[in-house]
Design a protein that fits this description.
mainly alpha; single chain; four-stranded mixed sheet
Length: about 525
């Protein structure tokens, strides 16, 4: 079998497995969603915004339409530039944000599994071992509990960056430096978290391979590593600059709230484990690698491959480092690293470092399986046993069928705004409830007008001020605040307003002379602010 044919077959296999592990998503990707999680909707909006702004005003890519009049509001969340670029042609062809998100979700699982397969196959010479590693890295407790976070499934460039890093260390040539820079930059342009995770894996791998860059080899290897780093910085820095301008720093107390506990490494949503024992450990973060991964990792360690094989040693190193960092401030020395390494100040969910441990066990399990298959090569039962191991690995992580919901319908009134409109949607939720604004973001993909509402990982001071002024809408103070903010059009979701502000607030809309109804349907009314009367 040619390498190219084997590669295509592996890609098809991981596409089939992605369909299996997210079932029944592939049956109706345009009408099934995880939009019951507000982060899903946030990511759908990010993807759509990047695709929209890339062809209308790319210079102001980060000046998104939420939290008006704030600037750089795309930087309040992960920018998802690479997934957005993948999905942009679909948006331009008229696909909905829900459909694009779901297709990218399937693509992320597929590509991450395939890239891992390719690297482990190259390093072990065993394609079946590569399949096992691809399954363990792509479909696991962590990725399958983070379906609302698209970036978690798009780790496909991490294996390729480590492959190029290994090539550069063993055969120092400029092309390997260029590939390393390219793969690292692509992974960094998926998300800031994956930038930090990839850098952590590379540094950990570098530390445990001194024989490849110390002494006489340093004159050849170190300059090429410096070139790769410089090129990657040049590529990635423009996407990081808006974040540095915001000056977002996560306090150690906040990091502590989102750090891992030992129970997280015993938690998995897999159906075969959850009801039997995992449910008692499940606290929202799931990092259990699986018994298959642990058993075969133990084989690689017991045989000594995890130390003697330089590539396996890299995996062991970044797996240990990832686990240590996942505990955040509870890990001795984390506070020092937090002070000395600025990227750590931007990491709130330290528990996510545990994904590096899952990746490491997935890779080491591949080395373990390759060693066992080599030991018993030629035995008739080996192919059947190999298939059984891969099947069990899939069964161990299987959480399907996954529960999906139909996305909420968007009123056609959102298509009726004039070009220079500035929008607000009511209810205008409190600053500690901005996640309720997520649906407004999805609705804004129909018009892209700036709006006072917003949802992300940050809440600007201007939003708090707007809330204080608008909480009694539609009273005179709120109307004046809307005019002062430059708002021209108001959407009111009647049923939600009744829940949050009472029926009187909705009834008052028909009695105020400052708002003119220009359209309504069963759920939403669209109003325009009338000119202020002369005194």
């Amino acid at each position: 079998m040619t390498d190219r044919r084997q590669g295509w077959l592996a890609l098809v296999l991981f596409a089939v497995l992605a369909t299996l592990h997210t079932w029944p998503l592939a049956t109706a990707p345009a009408s099934l969603s995880r939009n019951n999680n507000d982060d899903t909707i946030l990511n759908e909006w990010v993807l759509a915004w990047v695709a929209h702004q890339a062809v209308t005003d790319p210079v102001h890519l980060f000046d998104a339409n939420i939290f008006y009049p704030e600037r750089r509001t795309l930087a309040y969340a992960e920018h998802l530039l690479v997934p957005a670029a993948m999905g942009a042609p679909l948006f331009w062809a008229g696909a909905s944000p829900v459909l694009v998100y779901n297709l990218l979700l399937l693509a992320g699982f597929t590509l991450t599994g395939w890239a891992t397969w390719y690297v482990v196959w190259r390093w072990t010479g065993d394609a079946a071992a590569g399949v096992l590693s691809g399954v363990l890295v792509a479909f696991n407790a962590h990725t399958l509990t983070r379906l609302p976070h698209l970036q978690a499934q798009h780790a496909e460039f991490l294996p390729l960056a480590l492959l190029s890093f290994d090539s550069l260390l063993t055969t120092p040539r400029p092309r390997h430096a260029l590939r390393l820079a390219g793969w690292f930059a692509l992974q960094a342009l998926v998300s800031f978290y994956l930038l930090v995770f990839t850098a952590t894996a590379l540094v950990s791998g570098w530390v445990v391979r001194p024989e490849d860059w110390w002494g006489a080899r340093a004159r050849r290897v170190v300059p090429l590593l410096a070139v790769a780093g410089a090129i990657a910085v040049v590529i990635v820095l423009p996407s990081l600059w808006p974040y540095t301008q915001l000056g977002v720093v996560r306090s150690l107390d906040e990091v502590g709230l989102y750090s891992a506990h030992w129970r997280d490494y015993l938690a998995t949503p897999a159906r075969i484990h959850y009801s039997l024992w995992s449910a008692r450990w499940f606290g929202g973060t799931a990092l259990f690698p699986g018994f298959t991964a642990l058993a075969l990792t133990a084989v690689a360690i017991a045989r000594g491959d995890a130390l003697t094989d330089r590539r396996a040693r890299m995996a062991l190193a970044f797996g240990v480092v990832g686990m240590a960092l996942s505990f955040g401030p509870a890990m001795p020395g984390y506070a020092v690293l937090y002070e000395w390494l600025p990227p750590l100040a931007g990491i709130r969910g330290a528990a996510r470092f545990g994904y590096l441990t899952i990746v490491a066990t997935g890779w080491l399990a591949g080395f373990g399986l390759a060693a066992l298959r080599a030991r018993w090569r030629g035995r008739r039962w080996v192919p059947i046993a190999t298939i059984a191991v891969i099947a069990v690995a899939n069964l161990e992580s299987l959480a399907a069928p996954v529960g999906y919901v139909a996305p909420q319908a968007i009123s056609p009134l959102h298509n009726r705004l004039p070009p220079h409109a500035v929008v607000v949607e009511f209810p205008f939720y409190p600053p500690d409830r901005t996640f309720h604004n997520a649906q407004y973001l999805l609705e804004s993909t129909h018009h892209w007008r700036p709006m006072l509402n917003g949802y992300s990982g940050l809440v600007p001071a201007s939003y708090v001020e707007h809330y204080q002024a608008l909480r009694d809408f539609p009273d005179a103070r709120a109307i004046e605040a809307l005019r002062a903010a430059g708002v021209t059009h108001v959407f009111v979701h009647h049923d939600e307003m009744r829940k949050w502000s009472g029926a009187g607030s909705v009834d008052a809309l028909s009695h105020t002379l400052d708002l003119r109804l220009i359209g309504a349907d069963a759920q939403v009314g669209l109003y325009t602010l009338t000119p202020k009367s002369a005194p």
